[in-house]
Amino acid sequence: PPLFLPSSSSISRVGYVWLGVERHACRETGRPAPKARPTRFSGRAGGGARTREPPPRRRGRSPRPLSPPLLSPGGAGRGRVCGGQNKLVFKPDLTLEEVAAKNPQVHRGRYHPEECKALQRVAILIPHRNREKHLLYLLEHLHPFLQRQQLDYGIYIIHQAGSKKFNRAKLLNVGYLEALKDENWDCFIFHDVDLVPENDLNLYKCEEQPKHLVVGRNSTGYRLRYSGYFGGVTALSREQFFKVNGFSNNYWGWGGEDDDLRLRVELQRMKIIRPMPEVGKYTMIFHTRDRGNEVNIERMKLLHQVSRVWRTDGLTSCIYKLLSVDYNPLYTNITVDFWSGA
Question: Where is this region: Disordered (predicted)?
Answer without folding.
Answer: 29-78
